C-alpha cells in the first residue's frame, strides 16, 4: 500500500511538524499579523503599551513576531529562534494585557502558545530550510 502512497513512507513526525509549522504560522499571520500591517494607523491607537515603551514599539514588536517570525517559521528557517518572539508576544498578551480573559475567551492565544511552544521544543523537522542548511553543512 505504501508503494501507491509514497508520502506514507515519510516519517510522520516530520509531516506533523511541517503541518504544525505551516498551519500555525498561517493562522498567526492571517488573523493577527496581516491586519496589523493593513490597518497600521488604527492598530497604533488600539494596541496596549504594557511596558511603557510606546505604542509604536509595541505594534512593531507584534508585527515582527506575527509577520516576519511567522514567515520564517512556515519556511522552517531559524525556526526555534523565530518561535521565541512569538511566544513572548503571546505571553505578554495572555498574562499581562488580557489578564481578565477566561481560558475560553483566550483560547486562540493559548492554542497558539501551545503550537509555537511545541515548535520551539521539537524544532522544524526535516521538511524545513533549517534541515536543508544542516545537511549542506554536514556534507
Automatic annotation (TrEMBL):
Keywords: Cell membrane, Membrane, Transmembrane, Transmembrane helix. The keyword Transmembrane applies. The keyword Transmembrane applies. It is found in: Cell membrane. InterPro entries: DoxX (IPR032808), DoxX-like_oxidoreductase (IPR051907). The chain crosses the membrane at residues 12-31, 51-75, 82-101, 107-127. It is a multi-pass membrane protein. It holds the Pfam family DoxX. Belongs to the DoxX family. This is DoxX family protein. The lineage of its organism: Bacteria, Pseudomonadati, Pseudomonadota, Betaproteobacteria, Burkholderiales.
